Amino acid sequence: MGEGVLRAREIARRRLRGLPIPDALTAPTPQQAECVRLRMRGMSNQEIAATLWISGKTVESHMRNVRLAASAGTPTSIGPIDMVVYALMHDLVPVDCPLGEALNAYVQRKR
User: Fold this and answer.
1) Which domain holds residue 43?
2) How many domains would you assign to the chain?
3) 93 near 71, Cβ under 8 Å?
4) Phi and psi of 98, rounded to 5°?
């Protein structure tokens, strides 16, 4: 079982029990971080999968775990702005990708 899955389970367990969620659990794994960086560039799951030589299902799993980590403080799902804020907090917005373009790219891929 991958590190991201174990983190996601621990976040869910802590959330169900009303326990605090340490920042270390919400930090992305290296592969999750790369998926978010590529998403901030506007790539689709299929494009990310092809770039990283992983399956589309793996990309979906990474992004689902990132969304779970990004929403650690709230029980609801996160929106595009929340994902960009998460990416900014963890230095995952590429330097050559202006914030407005990153948000627009993410929103376009969610449609």
Assistant:
1) 3-110
2) 1
3) no
4) -55, 150
- Tell me: the pLDDT tens digits for 88-109? 778 787 766 766 676 667 666 6
Statement: the pTM of the whole predicted model exceeds 0.70:
no
Q: 26: Cβ–Cβ under 8 A, 6 or more apart, which residues?
A: 11, 69, 70, 72
Contact 64, 39 (CB under 8 A): no
